[in-house]
Amino acid sequence: MKQFLLTAKLDIVESLRARWFQIYTLVFGGIVALLFVFGLTESRVLGFIGLSRLLVTYIQLTMAILPIFVLITTVRSLAGDREAGVFEYLLSLPVSLGAWFWGKIVGRYVVVFAPVFLAMLGAVIWGSISDIEIPWSMFGYYTALLAVMAMCFLGIGMLISVVARTTDMAQGAAFLVWLVLLLFLDLILLGVMIQGRVDPEIAVTLALANPLQVFRTAALAMFDPQLIVLGPSAYVILDLFGATGFRIFALAYPAALGLGAAFVGYRIFRRGDLL
Amino acid sequence: MIQFKNLVKTFKRARVLDGIDLNIGLGERVALIGSNGAGKTTLIRCLLGEYAFDGVVEIDGIDPRKNRTAVLGRIGFVPQLPPPLKMPVGQLIEFSAALCATDPARIVAIARQLGLDVEAIRARQFVRLSGGMKQKLLIAIALGRDAKVLVMDEPAANLDPEARKIFFDLLAERLNDATMIISSHRLDEVSSLVNRVVEMDMGKVVLDDTVADDAGLTDTLACRIVLKRFEPAFAKALDGWKLAADAERLVWHGQIAGPDRLRFLGILSRYTALVSDFSLAEN
Q1: Nearest Cβ partner for A92 among B48, B95, B98
Q2: Which structural domain, as residue segments, surrounds residue A26?
Q3: Which terminus of chain B has a lower count of CB atoms within 10 Å, N or C?
Q4: What is the domain count for chain A?
Q5: Chain B partners of A92 at a C-beta cutoff of 8 Å?
Q6: Would the CB atoms of B100 and A93 count as touching at under 8 Å?
Q7: How far apart (Å, rounded) are the C-alpha atoms in residues A126 and A39?
Q8: What is residue B139's three-state secondary structure?
């Protein structure tokens, strides 16, 4: 436990001093600041006003930025550390591989999740001060959604870092994973469906295997419970899960995916060369 | 104490270690030499449990892959290239001390002996220290605990003569209770530190011999040099070795650490034409 906590703390301190973290924090803090500056709390879209509108926009932007940011920074710093000799030295100290690997994940998770959450929390605090009504249930669910989103892509990032032997390979693989998930979000699926070669139900199931799509749908469901904007896909999703069921699925599936990827990464890490 | 039995390490199709058989006993000081690609670093990484391998690697009968913490708790390691750690010096000391179950004050004390004032650089990032400071700190971390095995990759390369002298003294204190493996490209860099030489080439041990050297790690030699004329570059080099000069800066004298004499003679050889008289006598 001591080794685990020491490793987690070490990763947090190393990350806090890294440039990527400063940019990362600036990006998410900046998004919230800009949304306030542009008066989003005063605008009204689809009946949403005030902080709900801001949170909806924030979660949509976060979904676009967070996955690629987490993937790239995780694989860059881990593969980079391995190449630069950081692992050679630190793994020569008496620390168990389990404590090292999971300590790194937890440490990294804290620095990945904290800025996105704190930015949102900052918006809520500001909203409270400015007497704007706070949609607490939305805030709570979006917080959980951000937490599992970070977990999902951190786990995938750790797996890529373990498997790829160089920083370039790791970065390329991370980008490819993100691109594939992005393409399966709409473009490829729509193409496939238009060609009529795949049942819509299979296409929707495939889409729901994509964590990006799950987050997107779950975020939409917060202000569009019938998922009207999704069109016919909504029938499949709501028939399959129901509204509450889908909300739970949207948290459980990506979390399981991230933890599963991390666990596979750990097994590979433990069995092979550490450097 | 340390046993390598038919150790084989293959990267893709390249056999980097090709059936290494080696036994190293307690108190032995082994120079691991060989050119680039000979397999020295790979052998050390297998010993540290950082590579998977075929064959047997054991320290006191324990496998470093299966019992990492038990094995690494006995090893102090100094890498050739200091890692680019962003953490502050203070945290590195605390982190290492906590993992190695030692008192951070021991590490700080050894660093001070080597001429590194930890308090002055405690908040500075490790990566921002000079090469010599990094090396001193890593040596202090390796020696600041009860390691039974010291694995060092060219440990004295970045140290000034004074720090090297103290480093040799510190190693001498551990002669009876530690085994040392010192890796280097060149034997003359480490010959004075060791009593056994293992040369590697193409992943095999091609030489395993003892070193006969009467000079101990703590011995010092009285040195006297008389120059024909003053030469600023040579004077600067001698200043670095803490030799004192007369008023005209033509007669120099001082003490040279026994294990450092080859290195000193190497420097002297560059200025042979300036030297009119020279002596190096055992104290």
Answers
A1: B48
A2: 2-271
A3: C
A4: 1
A5: 48, 50, 72, 75, 77, 79, 151
A6: yes
A7: 13
A8: helix
